């Protein structure tokens, strides 16, 4: 370098024009720096321009800023500066890592745009490569945001951090039997954000899906490991509405409590027929596709994730009950001046004001009868012999808060260790995990151990691939009513929770000697001590060994044609033990004690074979054709045995059936079924602009007789990507815009088997008779089921129109869907009159139509993501509305009332109204006076102070025909809002969800608001109607109330809308390299809280009320639900 | 699985049979046993079969003047409406009776249909003797189930073995089924001989004659009924030689007095579906050795009807309602705790073998303590029923452990005393008062044999029951025979049906309400209309029939 030219490089240059040709730019530089540029005219091309902006700097800096990016190198030669257009191959290299975990990413594709030159990163995430300056490197990797980087002459090393995808268009999603880019989807598919899901503690992946996919309604309860209720686009049938799960390609129906949420790689919800009908006869309720984590090439990436927390039962939301003084006063008033009877007076005296007794019970003496001599503790005898049982129980005059007594703060914990890696020819992903959740209801809980191994091996130059996905899960449920196989018994009137509503508050938890107290005695009703129930069930246990997985092999037959076979298996082996103890403190107690055990298995194998042909013609036509067959066969068998009469109680080592001496029972049951299907699918796109997809599946099912054994389910969909059209090319703010439309047919065959056959039964219970001498039984035969030979598939026809958009380079995105689903030939066990079937079961017939119409909207805003700013902020909103209507029932059947709980019939199936509509009398107020009674329509034994109903049929009296629809359990809309932010090493997640406009049926009022049974009374009644409180809408308490008063009415129906902060989490990623050297590549700690607050007007315990099953699903009827708890956790994610 | 054989999709039901598998002699015998098996009103399980109980405690007794539903007001409210003659078509009890009865009919029809197929086929078949006997048994049972329906609902659809299930739904309820019942019973009388295999639970010629006699009595065809009833009486020992208590003794079942009884047993595995599930609610509350729900409490009116005149005769004029005996009802304080049973109360001894009352030994259970066994005495009075209970010494072998309110005690549908009294009724209506007198006095003579209940070595009541010296006229005889029927057969499920067929239900029950309503509000101000002699057709059945079934008048 000569001094002159070097000096020129330091000379200050000032540029004021922003845009000019390269030629005039260089002339300008020469003038200001007095340096001379030497260059080939080709550098200038003809109109090559530069954009500089206002700039004042030295020449060297200006050249670096402006020319180097144009791949023009400069060299100082004496006084001259040589400019060289750089077009040689340069050797470049680099390392690609995960932007979050800082782990190297092996197998990432690095490709020169517009060519087939490319390479994959090695196991250290590194690549080396020859490229020309100005080439654009396309870096892409499934699950990450792709990047494009221009090769410049000055840079040889390209270390790139890839951000995991959140809602990127190029994300590849698994649909039916194949995968597609998300941007190419033509049907309604909700892609669940797994990242968000994982930030929430949950036993079941379904629970964590709540609010994260539009159109998917999830209702959770607080029972340990319960699988929440999931409904995709409403209720499509009066039968089972659970979706089909497809896990690593293997269909699965059932509960998901065995699956470890942390093992899930991706989750898609196929919502409309055009997406789901490839699953044919099992797709009516939607399909949830779950893919577990697969191995990736590279050195082992080891992660450890853990959280520990506590769950708080939200005691404050339990309805308030009267204290014993209030209770006794109100009970006495309820007799309306008539003699309250000896059972009342024994407890509370016969005076005008009740007195609370000191003792409730001493031997056979009750309440005020108990003398000091009776209460002498030496008489106390707690035994299982009813004749000598002598219990002494003091009254709890201040009142027992039963909900507090049966609940507690309970721990929750989860640990997972996973490793993932592999070489070019083999990859693996393995994990082991433990999840433990104690119930907030005492003495209940769940433990689960998971092991997963997914491997894939390729051979013959990657033309042949085979592997396996295997999951083993061991789980244990313990305590009252908990069983992952048959959930639900933990929440009804016979559950501990149900009794917490019913047991009088004057009863203490324990008697004077610390044994359980109860309702034995007078006027204390027939509720059980719920804590006693829970305690006695603490050793009840249900264990499950669950294996689920598949082995597969695939071969590339010729270019583009892949044959694949997969054999999947589900094998579940479970056993349970349930103990009964004497409960003589209970007014309807018994001294029975016993052990009941069950053992059983469920198996299902699925053999799937597909041929897939993929071809791209002229870069313009993309074709993907798939054909396949699938055979499925299942079998289950269960053995149950029980005995009573154990010599000693409470000793788990002694509880074997052999040791029991009475009530010796045993039984076994089983089921079989098979399905055989052929299917095909074709996806075609032209220039990424016009997308077409067609599927068809023909299913044969063992559930149907020869008349209709097979069903055919076709679907088609189209999409138009407007943003690829020439006329939209200049709309730069619009990154992607696509309009979709699809129509198709799906089916349902999920009914009890063998409806096409008359079936008979020979059993001790139903068809035997001690005919010989009134002693030994002779077994006979009865017909227990009647046939419908022509029973066939239930069908849903659905039309979906949608729009997907991404604008401002991914800053905003969203989608909108409108759909109309019509169910026809609904499988319906129309009850035949007894004259035809006696007490046997009527067959399913195909009658009835149902309709679901709805719209779904998803909006996302992503700040700082595409330009990788330190502060990133995401907002997501989902809103879905589904309107359900029963169009038609069986001929001649206009309505069917069901949901019979005690004397309540809560629900009706009625043409023209939503499925599961609440049914009963419409409350018009309270009968205010005798005149009011005389001038109004009345029912038998109507009275002043009692509920007054609307005379629907106008005949002047109230009777069953005046019942009408009094509420709709379906929400007007459900919505969710998620906020995610990160700043440098901090991250924050907030997730809200809500339901608006749904009604709930607070059936617990049957017990707490009326004197149907002696039991706790709600404090609501302190404001009941009286001649001096005439504006009250709460009927006065009356012991002799007509059953019309507590019949199903709008008195029970409440607005169930709610808005809930479902999840809150704040995390901090430690600068791990400073702490542990290279041993730890990533370390994040976080604090989380769920259900922090709930906004609702619902007067019951929790506004999330899942369905119960009666004749048909009963929606939104609260008979004592297991409330969701408030959870606080601390967690740790470590990567090695 | 690329090409799958069709059989892959053909699976067989699990633990169930299909028709080809039972088209055999064993199959037909099995179907027949199944037809008998419904006599206890229960398909399987145990709770819920109250209205179809063979004892007919609810519809036959609670609906009449003999008993209250019991328990408390809020328990089984639909039963209150039956007690108060305010049934609606949605009352679940009516549905239970309707459904169980047709289940029995379906079983009879299936037996007859498969029998006919078997006999018409070419395979192994029954000899003619057994074939016709099976027909006789099945048709007898079918008549019984239709009779249960007819008494309650009057207008019911009739299907026999020739009607396929898919056509049965459309059969209307507009024809009288009595001729069909009569045809079946007559067939049984004509073709049945002795009990098949000498099995006690089976119907034989005598059973059929008794049933046809009863049926004809309900039609007031006294001259046709009488010879059948006489045949039955002639086939058995003199009733005075047969202990009254044997009828309600689980160790003496199927004795000479049993004509047609429903067989109950505890299953070999200890469960109860074949026990007496219909009466399970009727065990007592509180501290009783078998404790349950406290239903079925005898009325003050029934208890007082056992009071006798100085002549040891019933108070036929209704004066038993004067100065009634109320046990410790409504007493309080010391009066209550120190209450002693009145040992001077003059009563028919059958009272203390029918009703449990305070201070009187109850079977071998000890002395009945009063309210300690009763759920809500203010609601349904101080008494408990006895005939459906068993000795505590039999609990171990004849109750379901843990659910001891299910017993193995048989229930009499027709017993010999009933036949005597039915025959006496025929004789009275036919004007043969001497013959009627003899029959009634035989019953009373037997009642006098009952041993007195004693406490501390002395009888707890002034027991007295004497024969009628004579029947001065038909009216008197009629009163006597009807009163005797109440006393002898109380709480056995006859009373309501008797009141209806005697056309006195309105008078008797409204009078009962005036008396009983003084003490218990559930009985207050009852009115009884013509439509209350029958019940509404269950609404569910009408809804399911697609219009074939019409509701009964008045509902």
CATH architecture of chain B: Alpha Horseshoe
Q: Helix count of chain B, per DSSP?
A: 19
Rounded mean pLDDT of chain B is 95
Estimated structural class of chain B: mainly alpha
**Rg over C-alpha atoms of chain B, rounded to the nearest angstrom:** 24 Å
Most strands sheet of chain B:
2 strands, antiparallel
Q: Low-confidence stretches of chain A at least 5 residues in length (pLDDT < 50)?
A: none
- The number of E-state strands of chain A comes to 66
Account of the protein in words:
The complex is a heterodimer of chains A (1136) and B (555). Chain A contains 16 helices and 66 strands. With 1136 residues, chain A is mostly beta strands. Among the domains of chain A are: 3-85, Phage tail protein beta-alpha-beta fold (3-Layer(bab) Sandwich); 89-162, Immunoglobulin-like (Sandwich), CATH 2.60.40; 324-398, no CATH class; 757-790, no CATH class; 922-962 and 1011-1045, no CATH class. In chain A, helix 10 runs antiparallel to helix 11. The longest helix of chain A is centred in the N-terminal third of the chain and has 12 residues, at 22-33. Chain B has helices at 25-37, 57-62, 77-83, 92-120, 128-153, 165-168, 178-191, 205-218, 222-234, 300-305, 333-337, 377-380, 395-398, 416-429, 433-448, 474-489, 495-501, 505-516, 539-544; strands at residues 67-70, 258-262, 295-298, 346-347, 355-356, 384-385, 399-400, 403-407, 411-415, 454-455, 458-459, 462-463. In chain B, strand 7 and strand 8 form a beta hairpin. Chain B is globular and about 85 Å long.
């Amino acid at each position: 370098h000569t001094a002159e030219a070097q000096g020129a490089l330091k000379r200050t240059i000032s540029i004021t024009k922003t845009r000019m040709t390269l030629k005039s730019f260089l002339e300008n530089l020469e003038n200001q720096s007095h340096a001379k540029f030497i260059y080939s005219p080709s550098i200038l091309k003809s109109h090559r321009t530069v954009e500089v902006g206002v700039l004042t700097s030295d020449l060297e800096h200006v050249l670096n800023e402006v020319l180097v990016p144009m791949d023009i190198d400069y060299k100082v030669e004496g006084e001259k500066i040589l400019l060289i257009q750089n077009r040689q191959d340069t050797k470049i290299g680099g390392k690609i890592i995960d932007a979050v975990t800082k782990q190297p990413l092996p197998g990432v594709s690095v490709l020169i745009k517009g060519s087939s030159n490319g390479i994959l990163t090695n196991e250290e995430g590194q690549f080396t490569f020859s490229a020309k300056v100005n080439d654009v490197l396309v870096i892409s990797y499934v699950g990450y945001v792709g990047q494009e980087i221009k090769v410049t002459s000055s840079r040889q090393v390209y270390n790139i951090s890839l951000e995991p995808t959140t809602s990127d268009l190029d994300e590849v999603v698994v649909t039916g039997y194949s995968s597609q880019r998300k941007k190419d989807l033509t049907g309604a598919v909700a892609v669940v954000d797994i990242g968000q899901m994982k930030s929430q503690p949950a036993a079941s992946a379904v629970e964590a899906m709540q609010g994260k996919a539009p159109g998917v309604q999830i209702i959770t309860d607080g029972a340990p490991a319960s699988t929440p209720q999931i409904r995709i686009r409403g209720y499509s049938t009066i039968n089972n509405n659970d979706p089909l799960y497809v896990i690593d390609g293997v269909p699965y129906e059932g509960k998901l409590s065995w699956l470890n949420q942390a093992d899930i790689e991706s989750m898609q919800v196929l919502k409309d027929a055009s997406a789901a009908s490839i699953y044919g006869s099992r797709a009516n309720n939607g399909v949830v596709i779950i893919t577990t984590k697969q191995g990736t090439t590279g050195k082992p990436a080891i992660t450890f994730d853990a959280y520990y927390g506590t769950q708080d039962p939200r005691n404050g939301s339990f309805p308030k009950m009267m204290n014993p003084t209030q209770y006794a006063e109100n009970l006495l008033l309820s007799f309306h001046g008539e003699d309250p009877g000896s059972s009342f007076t024994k407890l509370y005296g016969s005076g005008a004001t009740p007195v609370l007794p000191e003792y409730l019970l001493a031997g056979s003496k009750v309440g005020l009868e108990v003398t000091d001599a009776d209460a002498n503790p030496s008489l106390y005898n707690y035994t299982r012999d009813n004749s000598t049982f002598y219990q002494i129980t003091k009254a709890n005059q201040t009142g027992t808060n039963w909900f507090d007594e049966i609940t507690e703060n309970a721990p929750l914990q989860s640990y997972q260790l996973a490793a993932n890696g592999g070489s070019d020819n083999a990859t693996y992903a393995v994990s082991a995990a433990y999840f433990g959740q104690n119930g907030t209801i005492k003495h209940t809980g769940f433990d689960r151990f998971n092991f997963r191994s997914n491997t894939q091996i390729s051979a013959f130059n990657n033309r042949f691939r085979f592997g396996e996905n295997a999951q083993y899960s061991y789980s244990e449920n313990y305590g009252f009513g908990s069983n992952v196989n048959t959930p639900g018994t933990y929440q009804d009137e016979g559950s501990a929770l149900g009794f917490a509503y019913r047991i009088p508050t004057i009863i203490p938890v324990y008697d004077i000697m610390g044994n359980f107290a109860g309702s034995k005695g007078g006027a204390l009703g027939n509720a059980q001590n719920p804590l006693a129930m829970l305690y006695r069930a603490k050793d009840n246990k249900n264990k499950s060994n669950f294996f689920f997985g598949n082995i597969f092999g695939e071969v590339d037959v010729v270019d583009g044609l892949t044959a694949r076979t997969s054999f999947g298996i589900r094998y579940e082996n479970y056993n349970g033990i349930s103990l009964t103890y004497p409960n003589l403190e209970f007014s309807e107690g018994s001294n029975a004690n016993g052990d009941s055990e069950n053992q059983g298995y469920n198996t299902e194998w699925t053999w799937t074979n597909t041929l897939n042909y993929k071809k791209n013609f002229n870069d313009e036509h993309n074709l993907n054709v798939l054909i396949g067959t699938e055979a499925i066969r299942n079998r289950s068998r269960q053995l149950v045995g029980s005995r009573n009469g154990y010599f000693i109680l409470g000793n788990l080592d002694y509880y074997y059936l052999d040791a029991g001496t009475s009530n010796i029972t045993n039984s076994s049951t089983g089921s079989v079924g098979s399905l055989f299907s052929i299917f095909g699918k074709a996806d075609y796109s032209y220039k990424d602009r016009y997308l077409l997809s067609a599927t068809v599946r023909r299913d044969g099912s063992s559930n149907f007789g020869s008349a209709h054994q097979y069903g055919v389910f076709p679907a088609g969909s189209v999409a138009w990507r407007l943003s690829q059209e020439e006329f939209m090319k200049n709309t730069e703010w619009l990154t992607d815009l696509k309009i979709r439309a699809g129509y198709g047919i799906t089916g349902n065959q999920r009914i009890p088997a063998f409806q096409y056959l008359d079936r008979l039964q020979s059993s001790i219970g139903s068809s035997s008779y001690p005919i010989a001498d009134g002693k030994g039984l002779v077994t006979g035969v009865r017909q227990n089921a009647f046939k419908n030979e022509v029973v066939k598939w239930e069908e849903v026809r659905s039309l979906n129109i949608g729009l997907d958009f991404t604008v401002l380079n991914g800053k905003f995105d969203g989608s909108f869907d409108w759909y109309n689903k019509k169910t026809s030939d609904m499988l319906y066990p129309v009850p035949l009159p007894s004259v035809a079937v006696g007490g046997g079961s009527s067959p399913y017939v195909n009658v009835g139509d149902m309709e679901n119409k709805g719209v779904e909207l998803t909006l996302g805003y992503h700040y700082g993501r595409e330009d990788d700013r330190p502060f990133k902020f995401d907002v997501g909103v989902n809103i879905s509305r589904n309107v359900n209507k029963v169009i038609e029932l069986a001929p001649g059947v206009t309505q069917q009332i069901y949901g019979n709980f005690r004397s309540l019939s809560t629900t009706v199936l009625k043409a023209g109204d939503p499925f599961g509509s609440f049914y009963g009398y419409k409350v018009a107020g309270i009968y205010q006076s005798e005149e009011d009674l005389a001038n109004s329509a009345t029912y038998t034994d109507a009275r002043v102070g009692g509920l007054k109903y609307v005379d629907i049929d106008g005949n002047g009296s109230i009777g069953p025909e005046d019942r009408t629809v009094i509420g709709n359990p379906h929400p007007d809309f459900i919505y969710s809002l998620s906020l995610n932010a990160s700043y440098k090493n901090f991250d924050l997640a907030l997730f809200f969800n809500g339901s608006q406009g749904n009604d709930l049926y607070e059936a617990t009022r049957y017990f707490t608001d009326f004197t149907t049974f002696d039991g706790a009374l709600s404090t609501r009644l302190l404001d009941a109607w009286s001649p001096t409180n005439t504006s009250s809408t709460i009927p006065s308490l009356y012991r002799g109330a007509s059953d019309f008063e507590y019949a199903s009415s709008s008195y029970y129906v409440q607005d169930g809308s709610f808005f809930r902060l479902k999840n809150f989490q704040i995390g901090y990623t430690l600068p791990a390299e400073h702490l542990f050297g290279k041993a730890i590549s990533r370390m994040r700690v976080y604090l989380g809280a769920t259900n922090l607050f709930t906004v609702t007007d619902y007067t019951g315990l929790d506004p999330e009320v899942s369905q119960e099953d009666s004749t048909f699903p009963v929606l939104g009827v609260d008979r004592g639900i297991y409330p969701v708890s408030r959870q606080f956790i601390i967690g740790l994610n470590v990567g090695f | 699985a690329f090409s799958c054989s069709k059989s892959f999709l053909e699976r067989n039901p699990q633990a169930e049979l299909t028709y080809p598998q039972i088209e055999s002699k064993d199959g037909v015998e099995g179907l027949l046993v199944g037809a008998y098996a419904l006599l206890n009103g229960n398909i399987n399980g145990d709770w819920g079969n109250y209205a179809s109980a063979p004892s007919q405690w609810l519809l036959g007794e609670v609906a009449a003047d003999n008993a209250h539903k019991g328990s408390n007001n809020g328990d089984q409210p639909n039963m209150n409406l039956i007690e108060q003659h305010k049934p609606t078509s949605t009352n679940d009890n009516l549905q239970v009776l309707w459904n169980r009865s047709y289940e029995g009919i379906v079983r009879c029809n299936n037996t007859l249909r498969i029998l006919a197929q078997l006999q018409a086929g070419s395979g192994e078949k029954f000899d003619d003797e057994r074939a016709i006997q099976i027909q006789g048994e099945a048709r007898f049972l079918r008549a019984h189930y239709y009779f249960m329906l007819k008494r309650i609902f009057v207008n019911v659809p009739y299907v026999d073995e020739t009607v396929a299930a898919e056509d049965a739904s459309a059969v209307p309820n507009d024809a009288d089924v009595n001729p069909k019942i009569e045809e079946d019973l007559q067939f049984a009388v004509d073709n049945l001989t002795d009990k098949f295999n000498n099995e006690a639970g089976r119907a034989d010629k005598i059973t059929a004659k008794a049933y046809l006699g009863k049926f004809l009595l309900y039609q007031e065809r006294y001259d046709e009924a009488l010879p059948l009833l006489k045949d039955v009486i002639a086939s058995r020992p003199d009733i005075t030689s047969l202990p009254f208590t044997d009828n309600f003794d689980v160790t003496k079942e199927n004795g000479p007095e049993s004509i047609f009884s429903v067989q109950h047993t505890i299953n070999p595995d200890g469960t109860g579906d074949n026990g007496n599930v219909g009466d399970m609610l009727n065990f007592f509350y509180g501290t009783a050795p078998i404790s349950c729900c406290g239903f079925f409490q005898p009325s003050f009116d029934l208890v007082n009807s056992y009071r006798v005149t100085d002549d040891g005769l019933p108070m036929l004029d209704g004066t038993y309602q004067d100065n009634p005996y109320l046990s410790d009802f409504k007493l309080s304080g010391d009066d209550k705790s120190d209450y002693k049973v009145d040992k001077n109360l003059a009563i028919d001894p059958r009272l203390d073998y029918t009703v449990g009352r305070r201070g009187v030994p109850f079977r071998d259970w000890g002395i009945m303590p009063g309210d300690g066994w009763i759920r809500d005495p203010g609601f349904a009075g101080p008494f408990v029923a006895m005939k459906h209970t068993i000795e505590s010494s039999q609990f171990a072998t004849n109750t379901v452990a843990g659910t001891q309110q299910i017993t193995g005690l048989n229930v009499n549908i027709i017993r010999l005393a009933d036949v005597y009294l039915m025959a006496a009724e025929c004789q009275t209506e036919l004007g043969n008062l001497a013959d009627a007198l003899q029959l009634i006095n035989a019953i009373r003579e037997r009642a006098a044999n009952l041993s007195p209940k004693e406490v501390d070595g002395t009888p707890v009541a002034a027991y007295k029951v004497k024969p009628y010296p004579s029947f001065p006229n038909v009216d008197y005889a009629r009163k006597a025979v009807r009163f005797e029927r109440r006393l002898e057969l109380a709480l056995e499920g006859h009373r309501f049906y008797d009141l209806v067929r005697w056309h006195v239900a309105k008078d008797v029950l409204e009078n009962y309400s005036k008396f009983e309503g003084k003490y218990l509000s559930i009985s207050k101000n009852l009115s009884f209309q013509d439509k209350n002699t029958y019940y509404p057709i269950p609404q569910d059945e009408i809804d399911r029939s697609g219009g074939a079934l019409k509701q009964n008048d008045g509902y």
